[in-house]
Amino acid sequence: MSTGVGMSSCCLSGKVKEGKPKGHVSQIGGLEAYISEPETGSTEKTVIFLTDIFGYEFPNVRLLADNYAKAGFCCYVPDLHQGDSLPISFLDDVEPSLREREQLSLTASAAKTAKVGATLGPWLIRHREAVTKPLMEQFIRAVRLIPGTDKVGVIGFCWGGRYAILATHRGAEPGLAVDAAVACHPSLLARPTDLEPVAKPLSLALGEKDSLVGEAEQKQLVGLMEMKQGQGQGVPTEVKIYEDQVHGFALRGDWSSDKDRQAMDDAEQQGIQWFKKYLG
Q1: Which is an annotated Pfam family here (predicted)?
Q2: Is residue 55 included in any domain, yes or no?
Q3: Using an 8 Å Cβ cutoff, are 186 and 163 in contact?
Q4: What is the spatial distance between Cα 86 and Cα 214, in angstroms, rounded to a whole number?
Q5: How far apart are CA 12 and CA 87, in angstroms?
Q6: Could you tell me the pTM of the whole model?
Q7: Nearest to 91 by CA among 52, 34, 65
Q8: Is 58 inside a domain boundary?
Q9: For a disulfide at 247, which of 126, 210, 255, 257, Cβ 3.0-4.6 Å?
Q10: Is residue 66 situated within a structural domain?
């Protein structure tokens, strides 16, 4: 069994998107959360965003939640890090694109890897599953109690991608169950352990050049997801692999690149269409 994929300098790469988020911040289930509502104000179809290591204040995730709200979903971005997200300044410290990554010398690459290890190691201990999963469940339970809420989906990115998958596991209490999930370039994913209990519709968006999920791992994930649809399980799944995209592309790609921008737009539509289908 694979013990999963870890973290690399790609986890700390990318671009900050320009724009001003339109939502507001409130406290739900004991956590601060960014909230972006559809024009109708309806909470009937809800999507919870599980962020990457840069957390709920990162402009990119808030602007993306705004786009989902425009598509008709009530969106919540909880602060699962409880004020301890990694600073956005790290985005300037490592390679933001595949082209620049491939130009790094071995020495520079090793230095970046060492820096990432020194930064992420203690952070991952503080935000291990035993700490984070109960916070996620606490938030899902609180959202389920909001008047008018019917179907609830979760979408996760990088670090949060794994928790989106965990939220689909069979045996969840009624108040903790989600109806569908999307995971974009999940990290720290144990294969097949984290995929075998999946019991709700799950869509994966992966980058072809993801340094954490190589070609062999991608094939394994595709196989595991196909098994969820067969063998009498009948769980709807899909895997989309985006050409020349690195880890983190769906949330913090390079907007100056037409190809990267198209991949981000396509991944956004992948999630929106998945939730329209399974939260409808």
Answers
A1: DLH
A2: no
A3: no
A4: 25
A5: 10
A6: 0.88
A7: 52
A8: no
A9: 210
A10: no
List CB contacts of 37: < 8 A, sequence separation 6 or more: 23, 43, 69, 74, 75
Split into its structural domains, the chain has a count of 1
DSSP codes joined into one string, 233-265: T---EEEEEETT--TTHHHH--TTSHHHHHHHH
Residue 100's CB: how many other CB atoms inside 10 A?
Answer: 12
Cα separation, 149 vs 139, whole angstroms: 13
What are the structure tokens assigned to 66, written together? 């705004």
Give a yes or no: residue 120 inside a domain. Answer: yes
Q: For residue 228, what are the domain limits?
A: 9-13+23-43+74-151+171-265
193's tokens: 């352990």
* Residue 169 DSSP symbol: B
Digit-by-digit pLDDT tens for the chain (280 residues) are: 344 444 444 444 457 888 899 999 999 999 999 999 999 999 999 999 999 999 999 999 999 999 999 999 999 999 999 999 998 877 654 444 555 555 555 555 555 555 666 778 899 999 999 999 999 999 999 999 999 999 999 999 999 999 999 999 998 888 899 999 999 999 999 999 999 999 999 999 999 999 888 889 999 999 999 998 876 678 999 999 999 999 899 998 888 889 999 999 999 999 999 999 999 8
